[in-house]
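re: ur question from the group chat, yeah i did fold both. here u go
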Amino acid sequence: MIEVMKQALEALELTADRMQKQRDAITSLRQAIEQAQKQEPWVWQQAPIKTQWGDDMVVADLAIDKDHTVSVYCERDQTARVEAMFRGTNT
């Protein structure tokens, strides 16, 4: 009987260890996502040909949250000003 209880305890300890490793991995991944979101989110690409404002337009898609994005269009030479405006550092 004692041997069975020891085996049950060992199984529970293994499970608890795995669960702690999973919790640690979840925490690490959340921190990585948070750090990535703090970094520069701007990836400018050539706007589609159908853009009515001309050939020099670029677009950046920014994450609002996990389910939503916003597309920001501007002239290629205005990207720094647009980024500064969104960061609240525009002059």
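okk and heres the other one u asked abt
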Amino acid sequence: MPSQEELIRQALEKIERARDRQGISIRRAAERAPKISEGYWRQLVAGGTSQSGVWIPRLATVDQVLKMASAVGIADEIVAHLGDELPEQLRALYARGSDLGQNLNDETLAAVLRSIDNRMLLAELARRLNVM
């Protein structure tokens, strides 16, 4: 089974292939991904950045991957790809409370919720988002 880091790298490769296929520039895709600038998008895809000749790794979070996937219209595919890694990452996201609603757009959140067969997790998400 691939590590979480490998799953994220694979997801980013899928996102970049989808972006290229659709002819969407990185700038345009980043505009569609909340809190991800064009430069940061490039760093996440590259796996890091060089500053003063020193390589600084940048591993995308699941939240960032979902935003990027949403920006190119493949959130469902990426949710399926991340599989078992997603619920654990969501626990960390919703532990921050209302940040979840600010970090994930409705399309991405809907894709995430469709992928999870865990009633307790869904109930907690609904409670944290004040849906129920």
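fwiw on the second one: Residues 94-102 have pLDDT under 50 and may be disordered. The first strand starts at residue 48 and ends at 51. idk if thats what u expected
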